[in-house]
Amino acid sequence: MSGLSKIKRKIRRANNLKINVFACKVCKHEVVTVDLCVGSTPGSIICPKCQETSMLSFYPDSVQNRKPKFGWFKPANDVILKEQIEWECEWSGVPVTDEKKELCFKLMKGRVKNGSLCLREL
């Protein structure tokens, strides 16, 4: 079973996971996420619509019934983490060189080791 299939199965079983909404202050686009693992998530992300780093997160009770399209997870190994970095570069729409991807990998590996989670489309 693929890692993505396991994530989708986990969401179907977990009714009590926290829904998080990132709302862009610039274009008003919203990204709805779910915490699939215990760990830390960022307070802001790059908006996939306008590429501004202005999406702020909140966990209000009023959004807990919304269906997430993205999930926060902990990559199980280096291969998954490298795939994650590729996905994040495509998702954000920001062109990144291979050299910068390698630097991102080194930074993210340390962050994941210390409890940071990664965002993935469900």
Task: Summarize the model shown.
The chain is α+β, with helices and mostly antiparallel strands and 122 residues long.
Provide a descriptive summary of the structure in words.
The protein has 122 residues and is α+β, with helices and mostly antiparallel strands. The chain has one domain (3-121). The protein has helices at residues 3-13, 78-92, 98-113, and strands at 19-24, 30-35, 44-45, 55-58, 70-73, 118-121. A six-stranded mixed sheet has the order 3-4-1-2-5-6. A hairpin with a 5-residue loop joins strand 1 and strand 2. Helix 2 (78-92) packs across helix 3 (98-113).
Largest beta-sheet characterization? 6 strands, mixed
Total E-strand runs: 6
Strand content: 15-25%
Biggest sheet strand order reads 3-4-1-2-5-6
The number of domains: 1
Summed over residues and divided by their number, the pLDDT gives a mean of 80
The assembly state of the depicted protein chains is: single chain
Helices and strands, with pairings:
Layout: H1 3-13, E1 19-24, E2 30-35, E3 44-45, E4 55-58, E5 70-73, H2 78-92, H3 98-113, E6 118-121
Parallel strand pairs: 2-5
Antiparallel strand pairs: 1-2, 1-4, 3-4, 5-6
Helix pairs in contact: 2-3
